TrEMBL record:
CDD domains, alphabetized: HmuY (cd12105)
UniProt KW keywords: Signal
Protein name (record): HmuY protein
Signal sequence extent: 1-23
Domain of life: Bacteria
InterPro entries, A to Z: HmuY
């Protein structure tokens, strides 16, 4: 009788231990990894034309999930000169051969504050997509990403201008431009090489609504 009781006790202990181990494994699977800030330096965004002439050339496409320049349709934002586009909506200029066709569902919302302070996704109705002659990233006005000095012709990124981007496949990233010049000089000069973007971003791959 004692032998049977001992066997049953050992069996119960084994089952309990296995159950705890299984629960621990499941808990590990449900842990949401922290969102890390990434820095991209000197992303080159050349263009032809400008200064009163038609602008042309291919946009440089970037994927937040891959953290690199891509040539596929799986891009999230793209750069050419000071212009930035999002992979959602329609072409801004249908006659622009260098502007890629939108194949994703991306959009963008401009918000204020520091990069670290933007922790919640903006309201859905604040997100906009590219449209004919109307870029989602504003080309003028308060929400444009840069200041332009018409004396020195220097372009400087606006402090406190953060963009939350809905990616081509429905995820989210927050994005802050730091510099438009190669090497991200603290004080760009007339001989600084332009059209080299340095920016911070944080990509949220999970179904949460926070960064």
């Amino acid at each position: 009788m004692k032998t049977n009781f001992l066997k049953l006790s050992l069996l119960a202990l084994v089952l309990f231990t296995a159950s705890c181990s299984s629960d621990d494994d499941n808990n590990d699977d449900n842990v949401i990894p922290p969102v890390a800030t990434q820095k991209v330096s000197d992303l080159y965004a050349p263009q032809s034309g400008g200064q009163g002439q038609p602008v042309s050339g291919d946009f440089t496409r970037f994927s937040f999930s891959e953290n690199k320049i891509v040539t596929t349709d799986n891009w999230d934002i793209a750069f050419r000169g000071t212009s930035i586009i999002v992979n959602g909506g329609t072409k801004i200029n249908v006659d622009d051969a260098g502007e890629p066709t939108r194949k994703g569902s991306g959009s963008v919302s401009a918000v204020g504050g520091t990069f670290a302070s933007v922790t919640l996704f903006p309201a859905a109705n604040t997100f906009v997509q590219d449209a004919a002659k109307v870029p989602a990233f504003p080309a003028s006005g308060a929400n444009i990403w840069y200041n332009y000095n018409d004396v020195t012709h220097i372009i400087t990124a606006k402090a406190g201008k953060i963009y939350v981007v809905k990616t081509h496949d429905g995820k989210y990233a927050k994005f802050e431009i730091l510099s438009y010049y190669k090497g991200a000089p603290a004080t760009p000069a007339a001989d600084s090489a332009p059209r080299y973007y340095t920016f911070n971003f944080a990509y949220q791959a999970n179904s949460t609504t926070t960064f």
